[in-house]
Amino acid sequence: xxxxxxxxxxxxxxxxxxxxxxxxxxxxxxxxxxxxxxxxxxxxxxxxxxxxxxxxxxxxxxxxxxxxxxxxxxxxxxxxxxxxxxxxxxxxxxxxxxxxxxxxxxxxxxxxxxxxxxxxxxxxxxxxxxxxxxxxxxxxxxxxxxxxxxxxxxxxxxxxxxxxxxxxxxxxxxxxxxxxx
Length: 181
Fold this sequence. Notes:
The protein contains four helices and ten strands, in the order ββαβαββαβαββββ. The protein is of the alpha/beta class. It has a single domain, classed as Dihydrofolate Reductase, subunit A (3-Layer(aba) Sandwich), CATH 3.40.430.10. The longest helix has 10 residues, at about 100-105. It is globular and about 40 Å long.
């Protein structure tokens, strides 16, 4: 099976994935009375596992909901020494270089990965390890916060695969990495 690392994330018009306090309430700024998932369920059904950073993991753990994932979750962290007891059966903590981490996950037969969290996405981009970007833009300018992108050493080329409009205000673009031979 083909190995693919995919991002599915929302940002503000000015490229932030969380406000300056780490908040994400602004993601709900456009009324969504029919609870349109904007393609999330289709996307999650196409992946084998999730790879997220510590901050994203801690944010998810702080939600007052049941564990939202039915797929294996891997948490990348340099500072965590263990997964909290409450989530031991929900996620696995991994340390190490990204390519080593990917080899470990792929050895488990999990090849289509959802990469989540700002720092984690940025790390994967710096290593040229993102194959698909599905970016949903919420029509709000935050002015400050946690950026989706950071500086990278090498230019990465993507091609637009599809654009969708949700709720007549939210734009979702799917980009696929161009591979040069």
